[in-house]
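Suppose you are handed only these lines of text.
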Amino acid sequence: MAMAARDTDRDLARLDELIAMQERIFISRQPRSAELHARALRSLAGGVTSTWQISRPQPIWISHGAGSHVFDADGNEYVDLHGGYGVMAVGHAHPAIVRAVSQRVARGTHFAQPTEDAVVVAEELARRWGLPLWRFANSGTEATMDAVHLMRAITGRSKIVKVEGSYHGHHDSVQVSVYEPLLDLGPADRPLSVPSSSGIPRAITDLTLIVPFNDLDSVERVFAENEGEIAGMILEPVMMNAGIILPDRGFLEGVRAITRRGGALLAYDEVKTGLTVSPGGATELFGVTPDIVCLAKAMGGGLSCGAIGGTRDVMEHIVRGDYDQVGTFNGNPLAVAAARAVLTEVLTDEAYRRFDGLRAQMVEGCGKTIANQGLAAHTVALGAKGCITFSPTRTRNYRDFLTIDDRFSQCHWLFQMNGGVFLPPWGKAEQWMLSVQHSPEDVQRFLDNFATFASALRS
Ligand SMILES: Cc1ncc(COP(=O)(O)O)c(C=O)c1O
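From them, the structure of the protein bound to pyridoxal-5'-phosphate can be written out as follows.
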């Protein structure tokens, strides 16, 4: 997996020069995006609709998507490996999604009463995750918020445990120690609870206890020091907002055992891993089932849709009305019509076999370039997702991830964008995302750009 560094210092010196050169090309390709952005700055705060749409040197305005491709406002065509931050496993305008959504639109899109599609989606999620009962939400944030509320409602306890560097959405309880710089984090074995955004009261932040990923001793210690006070742990079973960080063997089993022993619940945040790393997400892939699963992103096939699933014991609290899981748009007919098509027509077993083939091509191709150029990098990939990590060794937690120089991924991103491959703008934190509509030729374009970047670095 890892390749030894030949000469990282020389790479670093070259990077700034290459970034400046590629940014000039990038800007010259996108005059219309620049115009739209200038106009947007007058009516949209910061000129975008979410802060994470800002990219350097400027945000890219999209015209449309088709299959595995997207087109920007200047008419540039890209192979889309951004996938709208890990959503578009179905690709763009997939005929099954177009059909399902068009049929639903023509029959009315919102009643705030359930439609039959919701049952089919819940049945299919129950089958894939082995958790019997489900409810819907509209985003990953809403799903993880419900999970945290449920854990507190069921146990009558206030504290929760969260992994340092993990992102679970933008509600107060989980906006703690997300993308903080090393200086703010406190001791590695006793991480501080650092508010990740302004507007989060200290009293809420203090209820979220932080542990490093892949560190069972810390989880054990936090549970021992807060005996009887922890409602549960929210955990992304594979960290996917710090590149891709895999769980060590036994980590998930260990967390499962510790939470049970502590009378606490375990909620998996599968907003990114769900439906992308396997048909039943990380739960199926690693074989450790939590009490609650949170889904969003890929399940809506491009429409806003989230879900929480749970054991009968957990969901009984919703059934009885101890916890009101509510929302005007929950189970919105348009969203569940799309989700039904995603689950029953698009993300079939054959789709996952297709991901396996494309992923193998990605990993093998990247590996060849890394070896040929002696880059200090390696790839990590699961299902439809993967990333190049610019470090010779595997990252095991957020602090390892922080040691990686951001400029490698920024420069690589610019080479890919200028070479017609759209990757997520937040460089080293993000992954590539394949869809069922990608082809080996699409993957080859990515690999060619990576090889061009690597040889520019070494020239
Ligand atoms: C792991 C994880 N959980 C939750 C969320 C929040 O999802 P949303 O942006 O749909 O609210 C994200 C978003 O990127 C995520 O990556």
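What can we learn from it? DSSP finds 16 helices and 14 strands in the chain. The pocket of pyridoxal-5'-phosphate is lined by residues 85, 139-141, 144, 167-169, 236, 240-241, 269, 271-272, 296 (CB under 6 Å).
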